[in-house]
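Support case: user asked for a sample of complex input and structure output to validate their parser. Sending the pair below.
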Amino acid sequence: MSPEDRESLARRARQVLERNRRGAWTCPAIGFYPHQWLWDSCFIAIGLAHDDPGRAAGELRALFRGQWANGMLPHMIFADDVRDVGSRRIWQSKKNPDAPRSVDTSCITQPPIIAIAVARVARALPDADRRALLDELFPRLVAYHQWLYRERDPHGRGLITLIHPWECGLDTTPPWMQQLRRMPRPWWLRAALRLHLARVARFFRRDTRFAPAAERTSDDDGLRMLVLVHRAGRHGFDLSRMPPRGSVLIEDLAFNALLTAANRSLEEIARELALTLDPALVRRFRATETAMEELWDERTGQYYSRNAVTGRLLKLPTVATFLPLWAAPAPDRVTALVELLRDDSGYWPRYPVPSVPTDAHHFEVNRYWKGPTWVNMNWAIIQGLRACGNEAIAGELRARTLGLVEHAGFAEYFSALTGEGYGAPEFSWTAALTRDLVAEDGAGYAS
Ligand code: 2M8
């Protein structure tokens, strides 16, 4: 790609982020996603850091408006001025005494990459602003990581348990949907599914007003996810109160792999501030790194999520298998993953890396998280490849990803076979991470 092409891509990415701006924070996409989402804003801040580090810092500060008194960072903070029937009412966050009073939030979290974003944004700020940001956010980040370990790994096994697929960010990813299909269902849900009444749920959804239903979460999956919110709500969204039967509890691969990278960023921030992290917390960080290996399956040569109740690996291959590259696994694992990425496994079609390998029976070319390529996944794999010293393949995936966006624009996700864009046409994390990838050295702040 020529320097002019790169500059044009960066300029267009900035325009998308400007259009999606909502004051101090940025929504993922106008219409489709009008609220603030946790990991979206982290990706957005990483991109904004190149051109406007002050705005990037504001984006991250805005996420802490939603922090609960127990340390939890919610996956959504609802915009005051947006009326929508379906979403904020299902959470009713203010019924929980730990939830903030000034904003409505969801009651679950999302991939915990915020320490990574804070460390990167801080690097782009002038000294005094960097220090101010880190001083302000460090204790709040520690509170979040403590919440994760205290509430979601109560037995100290090393892996965080998720209580809803929305927490993993890859919402309808096949292993989660398979487990949702197996959960005991109330009679009315059985009847609704049998009579194909789930379509009624579409009335409460925003997304199918803007994009063809075939590209979005299916009605049945959508209804099961709503049932799960309702059930978790009956137990205060508190893992310790949730009965194993009737819940779907998963040690999610993507979430835990990203957490290992975020833990390291938090340690880096502590060093920069010359502060000591609680040694008990640091031991939990190391335990997560070790426990990642329990998610490896030798026979198929891939990582998987695990059912937290039965201890069974959920052996449906997905893009998440590559995220442990960021957790710095042993060299033989790295070799196996790099081979898997580049051989004929279905993970390297014309527009890699698909959310589900193209040769899997559960691959769906245009369905949300069940096949298409997502820029945030590619970006995370590139970071992982770099962390393991695989610059050449990281560079190739970076070039392919930028080529895809040049070809189809800043879509939410893309066909891995044709490159066609799906979902929201001007999606913030596609723009922000494109901006990051365009930067000459990938991680540095060129401008
Ligand atoms: C999607 O998730 C939301 C629910 O959280 C939805 O389907 O409405 C996912 O792609 C998620 O990862 C993302 O953060 C969110 C907003 O972009 O949309």
